[in-house]
Design a protein that fits this description.
single chain; 149 residues; five-stranded antiparallel beta sheet; four-stranded antiparallel beta sheet; 2 helices; 9 strands; 39% strand
């Protein structure tokens, strides 16, 4: 788990260059983009497991992973053209949800750490959501990549 003192390895690392449109007038990455990078890293992690963040369940229903909560603490700025590595850790595989921990690094230092909780849901055409148990094929892929306790 990322805590500054941990030696555990991330399950996935996603690298993203800070573009000009990601920054403010001072060339510093805007705070909202840290959340966007965390989401992109989560999607890349799903793809690394040959899973999708959205998939067709029935002809009328999708299975998706909407956020239940997200937080981010900023420690140092990322600037235009920096390469940002987002380290993905899976803190918890629950019955219906996943909790991710994220660390962002640039130029040899940690610049932010965050946490996201996402729920597995049926997404209906009328916009309603219903939380469901994580499908077994997803659960198996998440759990097989977790470090041994």
């Amino acid at each position: 788990m990322p805590d500054g003192n941990s030696s555990s390895s991330p399950l996935h690392v996603y690298t993203r260059r800070v573009t000009f449109s990601d920054t403010d007038m001072a060339g510093i990455m805007h705070f909202a983009n840290y959340y966007r990078y965390m989401e992109e890293a989560e999607h890349a992690y799903f793809r690394s497991l040959d899973l999708a963040i959205m998939h067709q369940s029935t002809s009328q229903t999708m299975v998706g992973w909407p956020r239940v909560s997200a937080q981010c603490s900023f420690e140092a700025p990322a600037r235009y053209d920096d390469l940002v590595d987002v380290h993905v850790y899976l803190e918890r595989v629950g019955f219906k949800s996943l909790t991710f921990l994220m660390e962002m690094h640039a130029n040899g230092r940690r610049i932010a750490k965050g946490k996201m909780k996402t729920a597995c849901c049926l997404c209906r055409p009328d916009g309603t959501l219903e939380s469901i148990e994580i499908p077994n094929d997803y659960r198996h892929r998440f759990e097989e990549r977790l470090p041994a306790s």
